[in-house]
Amino acid sequence: MKRVLLLSPYKGDIEANVAYAWECVLDSLRRREAPWASHLFYTQIMNDSDPAQRSLGFQCEAAWLPVAQLLAVYTDLGISAGMAQTINRVSADPSLALPVELRSIR
Fold first, then answer.
1. Packing angle, helices 81-92 and 51-64, rounded to 10
2. For labelling alongside 50, which of 1, 60, 77, 82 has CA 20 to 30 A away?
3. How many domains does the chain have?
């Protein structure tokens, strides 16, 4: 199975965005992938409004980048600032050699 780091929006309409993120996880599973959605999982136990905890969440996500085989960006709800930050990090670091795939499920 391919290890896939998923990106989708979190901020804004959090309830709708969390529901969408779970749809993205399910889509990835249906593709026979092993998905990881740090923005979905870490926000269940950390406060995304707390800058220190948000920063820790991004640090944890960054730790997954070297072992991921694909960055799947789910675009149905747009690309948030946090998503753009991760995409830019991947694009700027050639040592990651991580393909970025834009996906839509709606």
1. 40
2. 77
3. 1
